[in-house]
Amino acid sequence: MNEGRRFIYLDNAATTRTNPKVVEAMLPFFTEYYGNPSSVYEFSGISKKAVTDARETIARSIGAKTQEIYFTAGGSESDNWAIKAAAEAYRQKGRHIITSKIEHHAVLHTCEQLEKQGFEVTYLDVDEDGVVKLEELKKAIRPDTILITIMFANNEIGTIQPIKEIGEIAKEHGILFHTDAVQAYGHVMIHVDEYHIDMMSASGHKINGPKGVGFLYIRTGVKIRSFIHGGAQERKRRAGTENVTGIVGFGKAAELAMENMEERARKETELRDYLIEKILAEVPYTKLNGHRTSRLPNNCNFSFRFIEGESLLIMLDMAGICGSSGSACTSGSLDPSHVLLAIGLPHEIAHGSLRLTLSEENTKEEMDYVAGEVKRIVERLRNMSPLYEDFIKKEKHNG
Asked: In angstroms, rounded to a whole number, what is the distance separating the alpha carbons of residues 79 and 40?
């Protein structure tokens, strides 16, 4: 990053800046309280207590019991554990799993792997806003359905799913319900009992916590196998010395996220709507992707006709703006987003997508600058496009 150059970070769905208070909470566990929580002496008890405190904080944040929180290395591991272990534990009951076409690849690729092992997976369609159709979900349920896994909110288009209703349907049919809440946790209120959630995945670095730490909530009574073998950590379900510093940081980040969630969401929603309205008003042939109101407070996702998203991102970067064209996990791919295709966008329009995800640190003045740069760059790219030229000629001819 060049010194003195303008820098506006709008890729908070990919990762967030670690809060200085989180770093401060973590530091002593690198150099001062470095004991292994599994050791028996008093010095290690400090580390053990820190892990327990973080577990209690996170459990409270979702209305869970402390012993229902299992620490992992992040959201992808939590998704893999929930789905693979549930499939293994309940395979005698059935081998059918229901998910949606817009899940994160940590869920989709895990389901594809299970299909190779003889499981059947139904991938539900979504409507044009990216919402799972509840009637389609009900129709997909079979006597051998053992798991429904639907994300809480989409990482690309920000749409929030009707999780409570999905949980009720799963409970009514005696089916396990897992939700990937990596994008939603700490940004919207989640109560596992109220939403009938049996398992839930979350990650520290999406809420101003450290990278490399997450959790999986597993409701008491859910029969699920160990994911990593080799030790008694995490109540014998996930072996390996605990990532004490990461867990402490995640606990602090969760505490801070819960303290100011309402105010933060209000500010981000206001900025989000301001940016959405400005870009839609000033850049023609632009579409907002995702539900207009039932979306994450900080998520904007646009498709611009007649341009390539990759060129837009490069030019935005030159203007000091960090955005993305979709999920950070697939940003190296030239294929259009599976999420945008699932909501009905044709390939050529899906290619011209831009995701901007804000934080409470952003300002209205920054949004003005971003909207102005998007307008300038899109105009420049369209002027280089023969498709746009042909389109304008036809418009003039028809007009």
From this structure: 32
More confident residue, 341 or 335: 341
Q: 3-class DSSP state for residue 98?
A: strand
Catalytic residue among 111, 300, 322, 329: 329
Neighbours of 3 (CB within 10 A): 5
What is residue 325's predicted lDDT score, i.e. its pLDDT? 86
Residue 329 known to be catalytic: yes
Report the chain's terminal Cα–Cα distance, integer Å.
Answer: 47
Give the three-class secondary structure for 350: helix
Instruction: Give the other-Cβ count within 10 Å of 302's Cβ.
Output: 24
* Interacting residues of 214 by C-beta distance below 8 A, sequence separation 6+: 71, 72, 73, 74, 75, 77, 78, 182, 201, 202, 203, 204, 250
H helical segments located in the chain: 20-26, 28-31, 42-61, 75-89, 105-116, 134-140, 163-172, 233-236, 244-259, 261-282, 309-318, 338-342, 347-350, 364-383, 386-398
CB 271 within 8 A of CB 367: yes
Q: How far apart are CA 72 and CA 55, in angstroms?
A: 12
The first and second tokens of residue 305, run together, are 């006709």
Mean pLDDT of the chain: 95
Token readout for 249 is 């940081």
Of 206, 247, 76, the residue nearest 84 (C-alpha)? 76
Q: How far apart are CA 219 and CA 355, in angstroms?
A: 34
- Between CA 359 and CA 264 the distance in angstroms is 8
Percent with pLDDT over 90 in the chain: 90
Vertex 50, ends 48 and 54: CA angle to 5°?
120
Q: At what angle do helices 309-318 and 364-383 cross, to 10 degrees?
A: 130
Whether the Cβ atoms of residue 333 and residue 376 lie closer than 8 Å to each other: no
Reading the block at residue 342, the tokens are 């699932």
- CB under 8 Å, gap of 24 or more: what pairs does 288-292 form? 289/130, 289/156, 289/157, 289/340, 289/343, 289/345, 289/353, 290/129, 290/130, 290/154, 290/156, 290/157, 290/158, 290/159, 290/343, 291/129, 291/130, 291/131, 291/157, 291/158, 291/159, 291/160, 292/129
Band the pLDDT of 327: cuts 50, 70, 90. Answer: very low
Question: How many CB atoms are located within 10 Å of the residue 92 CB?
Answer: 7
